[in-house]
Design a protein that fits this description.
about 220 residues; alpha+beta; Metallo-beta-lactamase, Chain A; six-stranded mixed β-sheet; five-stranded mixed β-sheet; about 25% strand
């Protein structure tokens, strides 16, 4: 498996391209905006986009999803259906955050919703789906067991956690997702968060004070 990070929009969100080295099939994960930049980055790689994966329904993670779905003629997969209310209210999110509504993005309608325990395949790479609510009700993460790698979205960051002051957020639910799903996994698992630097589960278990102080 290979991946390439594309920071997009004023939120500096980690859109990523992940692909199978054998088939060169690829997925775009959380294309939050800057459509032309994303397309240019894809063109620089020897890959074929076959699907778009979403971790959750906030505008900074889905802003270019509709445009890119139409451009590549691929399905949008995820998040969990509990985030439908967010995907149906993207204009309201833009107004709340003071950002422009992206082209063609009034709402995002996934072709497939995901639930805990589902699997998503990109070429020969398999990602297990963990439903990890708290930052948003339908947030999912994509865990590649073989590669020991998680696409985390906004659940857990390097020495920080996802914010819970947006609609649908809940701090106790978020901490429960981190402690009882993510922290049960191996210390040597690397994760790519939705913003900022990568980290490992082991590092966060030892150094993430936000998880320890919230009960």
């Amino acid at each position: 498996m290979q991946y390439h990070i594309i920071p997009v929009t004023s939120f500096n969100q980690n859109c990523s391209i992940i692909w199978c080295e054998i088939t060169h099939e690829a997925a775009l994960v959380d294309p939050g905006g800057d459509t032309n930049k994303i397309r240019s980055e894809v063109n620089n790689l020897d890959v074929k986009i076959v699907k778009i994966l979403l971790t959750h329904g906030h505008i900074d993670h889905v802003g270019s999803a509709v445009e890119l779905k139409e451009y590549y003629s691929v399905p949008i997969i995820g998040p969990n259906k509990a985030d439908q209310i967010l995907l149906d209210s993207l204009v309201l999110q833009c107004n709340m955050l003071g950002v422009d509504v992206p082209n063609n993005t009034v709402t995002v309608v996934p072709d497939f919703w995901l639930k805990d325990g589902d699997m998503v395949q990109v070429g020969y790479e398999i990602f297990n789906v963990l439903h990890c609510p708290g930052h948003s009700p339908g947030h999912v993460v994509y865990w590649n067991k073989i590669q020991k790698f998680i696409i985390m979205g906004d659940v857990l960051f390097k020495e920080n956690i996802g914010r819970t002051d947006l609609p649908g957020g809940d701090i106790k639910t978020l901490i429960n997702s981190i402690k009882n799903k993510l922290f049960l996994l191996g210390d040597d698992i690397t994760f790519l968060p939705g913003h900022g630097a990568q980290s490992t589960i082991g590092h966060e278990r030892l150094n993430n004070t936000f998880v320890g102080i919230i009960r």
